[in-house]
Amino acid sequence: PPIYTVDGKGREITIPLRDGVETAATLYSPNQTSDDDRKNKADDSPRPVVLIRTPYNRASLARYGFRFAERGYHLVTQDTRGRFGSTGEFFPMLNETRDGA
Q1: What does DSSP assign to residue 82?
Q2: What is the phi-psi region of residue 5: left when phi exceeds 0, alpha when psi lies from -120 to 50, beta otherwise?
Q3: For residue 14, which of 78, 101, 95, 97 has the smallest C-alpha distance?
Q4: Torsional class of 61: left (φ above 0), alpha (ψ -120 to 50), beta (otherwise)
Q5: Average of per-residue pLDDT across 60-82
Q6: Deepest in the core among 19, 54, 77, 83, taking most CB within 10 A?
Q7: Of residues 78 and 98, which shows the higher confidence score?
Q8: End-to-end CA, the chain
Q9: What is the rounded (10 degree) CA torsion for 40, 42, 43, 49?
Q10: Does residue 25 carry a pLDDT above 90?
Q11: What is the mean pLDDT of residues 55-65?
């Protein structure tokens, strides 16, 4: 069951790859709940991170962002290179191992 609150949307971030390509991603984080004056602010403290990389548009994965964040995880959904918000060229399965490491 959910134990944390989550903002209405994730935080848009850019993740640079080794060759300079920039991939678009969304970070979902649980809100801080321990201190009243920090409540309802994204919690950037160290927590387990789940990374989901997709060529099918990271926006379609928002529901997973909320489910993981409500349970105390950071979740990053990332468009693979050359897809949607990411730069570079898309060649299916060619760069996935190197880009995901």
Answers
A1: T
A2: beta
A3: 78
A4: alpha
A5: 94
A6: 77
A7: 78
A8: 31
A9: 140
A10: yes
A11: 94
User: 42, 65 in Cβ contact below 8 A?
Assistant: no
Burial 42-71 (b: 16+ CB within 10 A, else e): bbeeeeeeeeebebeebeebeeebbebbbe
Whole-prediction pTM: 0.85
Count other C-beta atoms under 10 Å from residue 7's C-beta: 15
What pLDDT, on the 0 to 100 scale, is given for residue 31? 87
Quote the CA–CA distance of 76 and 12 in Å, as a whole number: 10
pLDDT tens digits for 26-58? 999 998 765 555 556 667 778 999 999 999 999
